[in-house]
Write a structure and sequence with these properties.
The chain has two domains: 164 residues, Glycogen Phosphorylase B (Rossmann fold, 3-Layer(aba) Sandwich), CATH 3.40.50; 181 residues, Rossmann fold, CATH 3.40.50.2000. It is globular. By secondary structure, the protein is an alpha/beta fold. Strand 7, helix 7 and strand 8 form a beta-alpha-beta unit. It starts with 10 loop residues before the first strand and ends in a 7-residue tail after the last helix.
Length: 364
């Protein structure tokens, strides 16, 4: 690290509003920044619901929560008056504070505008900028050949003298005891035991925010239906995920399972993850919550790729689609078939689950 480029006691604003996985990815940037410059004062501007995952983060000195959802809704409806009022709220939130440096780790028009509203004399943006974001920056981080999002986010620290060789992987999530206790009580209420080698606890997340990252729910059911009875299966998700979980459960036939859809907030979900042995999921926010709390994962990949988004820490396993068309990074399949995710066979997932959950013969 070149300490001459980052003054001691620097007041730094981080702008990363959403989404869950991207915000958790960005905690790695902030953790490395705070580790290398412990005297700096870090403020983070974030939007719900991801803000919940930053509460109590030891690397953040001040958390500013601005709900971007009214802005997004106003933009969709071209409601100029509402746009003005939502931005006025953001300005009011930022106004009491003085920043020396602002880092935009989102790279969009909105995040750039908010970064500019901070009045920081140095405003640094990441290279993969969009929507005219660069117009709001005083500096742009260098481009790098590495495709992984976290390492690309880390380039925002290059102008501050922090190099790639200084980087240590790992996400940060403060898990309060209340969330752990909630999870323990919730699981016990349904007869689920945790951390019992004889009865491993498998959590299953069936939905993602991108339509083309979703593996068919009936495929989940087929992969899970014949797992040994000693494996406890618990589905997690939002209330809107319940119908898809029910489809998966029907495909499991008489195989017992439990659905916790809609029964936890994000921190409580992290508490449930803390009690489990493995998470089966697609590329979505819960994958990175699991990484942050140390839960091993088996994730399914089609339109995205773990070399770009996947966990960088140990204990994470990937199943990549065998389909020729993959890693397009598009939110909707241009062929309208979701062929890449559909090409992942349930039998392949079942075999991987057994290898991860069932101890080898003679080692039980």
């Amino acid at each position: 690290m070149n300490e001459s480029k980052l003054p001691k006691n620097a007041r730094i604003l981080i702008v990363r509003l959403s989404a869950i996985g991207d915000v958790l990815h960005s905690t790695s940037v902030v953790h490395n920044l705070k580790r290398l410059c412990p005297s700096c004062h870090i403020t983070w501007l974030v939007s719900p619901p991801a803000s919940l995952l930053l509460e109590g983060n030891p690397d953040i000195d001040r958390l500013l929560v601005w709900d971007r959802r009214p802005f997004d809704d106003a933009a969709r409806h071209l409601d100029v008056r509402r746009l003005y009022h939502t931005l006025k709220e953001a300005r009011r939130l930022l106004a009491p504070y003085t920043f020396d440096i602002a880092l935009d780790i989102q790279g969009l028009f909105l995040s750039g505008l908010l970064t500019h509203m901070s009045h920081a004399p140095r405003r640094i943006g990441i290279h993969e900028r969009h929507e005219g974001n660069f117009l709001f920056m005083t500096e742009i981080a260098p481009d790098i050949p590495d495709r992984h999002k976290i390492r690309r986010y880390m380039t925002a620290l290059r102008p501050l003298g922090i190099e790639a060789s200084d980087f240590r992987p790992g996400l940060v999530l403060n898990l309060p005891e209340e969330a752990i206790h909630f999870a323990q009580t919730l699981l016990a209420k349904h007869g689920i035991v945790s951390h019992d080698p004889a009865r491993p606890l498998l959590l299953v997340n069936v939905r993602t925010t991108w339509p083309d990252k979703n593996w068919p729910p009936e495929y989940f059911g087929r992969a899970l239906s014949d797992l040994p009875s000693d494996i406890q299966i618990v589905f997690t998700g939002a209330p809107a995920d319940a119908p898809y979980i029910e489809t998966a459960q029907r495909a499991m036939g008489s195989r017992p399972s439990l659905s916790l859809a809609g029964k936890t907030n994000l921190l409580q979900l992290a508490g449930v993850f803390h009690k489990a042995d493995l998470l089966l999921t697609g590329d979505t926010g819960p994958l990175y919550i699991a990484e942050a709390v140390g839960l091993s994962t088996l994730s399914l990949w089609g339109p995205t790729h773990p070399d770009i988004y996947g966990p960088l820490t140990k204990g994470h396993h990937f199943i990549l689609t065998p389909n020729d068309c993959h890693a397009c990074c598009k939110t909707k399949c241009r062929h309208k078939t979701n062929a890449c995710m559909n090409a992942i066979e349930p039998s392949v997932v079942k075999t991987a689950l057994l290898n991860l959950l069932e101890p080898p013969a003679g080692k039980a």
